[in-house]
Every structure is written in C-alpha cells, then in structure tokens.
UniProtKB/TrEMBL annotation:
GO biological process, one term: translation
Family from the record: Belongs to the universal ribosomal protein uS14 family.
Gene Ontology terms for molecular function: structural constituent of ribosome
One term under GO cellular component: mitochondrial small ribosomal subunit
Pfam families to which the protein is assigned, alphabetical: Ribosomal_S14
Cited SUPFAM superfamilies: Glucocorticoid receptor-like (DNA-binding domain)
Superkingdom: Eukaryota
UniProt KW keywords: Ribonucleoprotein, Ribosomal protein
Protein name, entry field: Small ribosomal subunit protein uS14
Subunit architecture: Component of the 40S small ribosomal subunit.
InterPro entries membership: Ribosomal_uS14 (IPR001209), Ribosomal_uS14_CS (IPR018271)
C-alpha cells in the first residue's frame, strides 16, 4: 500500500513543477451562462480588494486573534493589555475579519448570496432555470 502511494507521489511531482502556482490567490473559475468559456479574472475591483483582504487575514488573522484575547482579558495586568492594544494597531487594518464581505463568485454582488453555492440569488436562479446546477430541481407540490 505504501509503495503505491510513493509511486503516485513521484508521478505527480513533475506536473506540480510545471504548474508553478504564484503566491497570490487566483479567482474562482467563472463560466458564463450560455457558453463554456472560462474566465480567470476578477469581476470587478471590489472582488479583487476582497481577495487581498482575505490574504491578509490568512497571514495576520491568528496573531490578531491572540492580541484581541489578551486585550479583552480583564484578569491580566493593564500594562500587558495596553501593549497588546498597541500591537494590534501595528497590524494592517485590512487584516481584520470584519472587513471581509461575502460576494457572488460570478457577479461579485454583495447582497442576497446563498452560502452553499457562493453566488447571488439572481445568478443562482438563472443557472437553476437552465439546469446548470447539480442537485437542484424546481419544487412541485
């Protein structure tokens, strides 16, 4: 069993070297409604800004969470809590989780998103009408 796993890993290595993914996150593949065209770009600047904020949260999120826990703990000495508050101020503002907003992956619409599909209700309805979503059927009773 282990020999098979190592051989599969060795087969995958050349392909991973060829791909050479950049450090930044790519947007989700977006398909238009009527064609199979794949667009690897951000829909608008708001989506790009949101992606940058998510990267900062990945980088600084755990650190910010620890500092906030220290700052809010009333048992600790006040000097330690003040130091934690200063350290929070040194972190980028966009590394705060409250600055991230859920957006539709196809239209970048910020409101009326369905969490399970990560798209707005309008886009979801259009895709569901044309039978483009698996597991979705029109209700009938």
């Amino acid at each position: 069993m282990q020999a098979v796993a190592t051989s599969m890993r060795s087969l995958a290595r050349p392909f991973l070297k060829v791909l050479n993914f950049p450090n930044t996150t790519l947007p989700v593949e977006q398909r238009s409604f009527h064609t199979a065209q794949v667009q690897l770009r951000y829909v608008d600047w708001k989506m790009k800004r949101d992606a940058k904020r998510r990267e900062l949260i990945k980088e600084y999120g755990a650190e910010r969470l620890r500092y906030n826990a220290i700052k809010r703990n009333t048992i600790l000495p006040s000097k330690l809590r003040e130091k934690a508050a200063e350290d929070i101020r040194t972190l980028p503002l966009d590394s705060s989780i409250t600055r991230v907003h859920k957006r539709c992956i196809i239209s970048s619409r910020p409101r009326g998103n369905l969490n399970r599909f990560r798209m707005s209700r309008i886009v979801w309805r259009k895709l569901a009408d044309y039978n483009k979503l698996s597991g979705v059927t029109r209700s009938s009773w």
